[in-house]
């Protein structure tokens, strides 16, 4: 089953296409303290993604929370090759926007449908073009 979402993307990614496996949570992420900057694993024990790595995933969460050090942490994660391929948010905030911009991690948000409803493991294709974002989702078919 394939579907599509439309939203807003960082304008600095003029024509970028990224594809990968979705890693989804409906809980906010605080980059400082929640994510190990070397491995990319979620280390906050009470977070739904605890123990999972964001590395090379399309990371989908509602918004970030916490420290203004978040952009530095995203840059550090990127420099250790542990960054997600892209980040999708319901609403983005200055922490995520500035961090993704500096670390060159594609970011999209403010979709016409909630991206946190995407199934973990789905194949996600993000196309950013001059401030717009189109996400194509291919859900894994499950047999009943």
Rg for CA atoms: 14 Å
CATH superfamily: Phosphohistidine domain
Q: Any guess at the CATH architecture?
A: 3-Layer(bba) Sandwich
**In terms of structural class, how would the helical and strand content be classed?**
alpha/beta
- Reported by name, the CATH topology is Glucose Oxidase, domain 1
Report the biggest beta sheet as strand number plus sense, adding barrel if it closes: 7 strands, mixed, barrel
Instruction: Quickly name the level 1 CATH class.
Output: Alpha Beta
Number of helices, where a helix is a run of at least 4 consecutive DSSP H or I residues: 3
Strand content: 25-35%
Per DSSP E runs of 2 or more residues, the count of β-strands stands at 7
Whole-number tally of structural domains: 1
Strand order in the sheet with the most strands: 1-5-4-3-2-6-7
User: What low-confidence regions span 5 or more consecutive residues with pLDDT below 50?
Assistant: none
